[in-house]
Design goal:
Blueprint lengths: L1 H14 L2 H6 L7 E6 L7 H16 L4 E6 L7 H10 L4 E5 H4 L18 H8 L2 H11 L3 E3 L4 E5 L1 E4 L14 E4 L3 H9 L3 E4 L5 H6 L5 E4 L1 H6 L8 E4 L4 E9 H6 L2 H35 L3 E4 L2 H10 L2 H9 L1 H11 L4
Helix pairs in contact: 3-12
This protein binds (2S)-2-hydroxy-2-methyl-3-oxobutanoic acid.
Length: 336
């Protein structure tokens, strides 16, 4: 029996045209998915999602192979969002604020000075506020995994002068990601914001198209922005996270058990990655100072007051609507 089937098999495969053999080598994954993100390979987002992809491959015996494309290799964030929607890319991590160009409420966590600390961030994003955003994402043909990855609290950097008070932002040429909330917030400060995708930020700073930018420490370090900036103001002006997004059809194409593995492993890596960022928040101050960035501690209350007197909170409460705003305030207290 064994002998016969082996002989039959050999005869059959010898008769197969070479082309057919090449098209489906024995080790090919049934589901070869692309996952894109915008950070450098040294950033915890890359390191932890790469680990998740390896665990998925192992746990699915190679059926699901997710290739990680770092550093906006497949296109800028704006481009990649289109590719995710069309299915050219199956998975993508994106800031909720940029996603808000498609899903407006996804920007809500970026309201200036909303989250006092991580003790408020994760219960909200893993809880009701996150659920509200995920439900809206689902209406747009995308699927958001349960656990967000951390980007972090954002700090302002500059080349020509330190930003110490809200007045220092008046007329300041600052790069912001492509998102109405970011533009609105820096306009409220009286700055002059320009929307630029992260893939272009280093060169925009280098060629002085803008004087400054704002990002968490882990991005400033892994993106080597300290090479083209001199000052860093610890403003903590907003908390920003990365939604792990997938094309809904691509997720639904996976057998249920494999899909559960993908979700489990990428959610698990998100928890690990949050821990990495928490440690970096402390250690990177010394690292970046040693690399030449001059740190200034600022009074966040003064920056918040500037936003308030510009009508920022009233404006965005109206834009997000009463329900979403109440969900945010339930997590962080009154923003009035
Ligand atoms: O574009 C940015 O500044 C970054 C890397 O923080 C985001 O992905 C929002």
């Amino acid at each position: 029996m064994t002998l016969v089937s082996r002989r039959t098999l050999l005869a059959t495969s010898a008769a197969l045209p070479l082309v057919a053999l090449n098209r489906r080598p024995a080790h090919a994954a049934e589901f070869a998915y692309k996952y894109a993100h915008n950070t450098a390979v040294t950033h915890p987002l890359h390191l932890r999602t790469t680990e998740a992809a390896a665990r998925v491959k192992e746990a699915t015996s190679g059926r699901v192979e997710i290739t990680v494309f770092p550093s906006s290799q497949l296109g800028s964030d704006t481009d990649t969002l289109s590719q995710l929607r069309s299915g050219a890319v199956e998975m993508f991590t994106l800031s909720g604020l940029i996603l808000s160009t498609l899903v407006p409420v996804a920007a809500i966590n970026g309201i200036g000075f909303a989250f006092k600390d991580y003790g408020q961030v994760w219960p909200a994003m893993d809880g009701k506020l996150g659920a509200l955003v995920r439900a809206e994402i689902a209406k747009r043909g995308l699927y958001a995994f349960e656990k967000q990855y951390d980007n972090g609290y954002r700090q302002i950097t500059s080349a020509s002068k330190p930003i110490k008070t809200p007045d220092d932002l008046k007329g300041f040429k600052i790069r912001v990601p492509v998102s109405p909330l970011w533009t609105g917030m820096f306009t409220a400060f009286g700055a002059s914001p320009t929307s630029i995708n992260f893939s272009e930020v280093y060169s925009a700073l280098q060629t002085k198209i803008v004087d400054g930018q704002e990002n968490p420490l882990a991005i400033i370090e892994s993106g080597k922005l300290f090479e083209v900036q001199k000052y860093l103001s610890v403003t903590n002006h907003m908390w920003d996270g990365f939604w792990m997004l997938s094309n809904k059809k691509a997720m639904e194409a996976l057998p249920e058990a494999d899909r559960a593995i993908v979700e489990r492993e990428f959610n698990r890596s998100a928890i690990d990655q949050r821990q990495d960022i928490a440690s970096l928040n402390t250690s990177l101050k010394a690292t970046l100072a040693a690399k030449g960035l001059a740190f200034s501690d600022v009074d966040p209350a003064a920056f918040r007051a500037a936003l308030k007197s510009a009508g920022f909170y009233n404006e965005w409460r109206t834009k997000f609507g009463a329900e979403a705003w109440a969900t945010l305030e339930a997590a962080v207290g009154s923003l009035a």
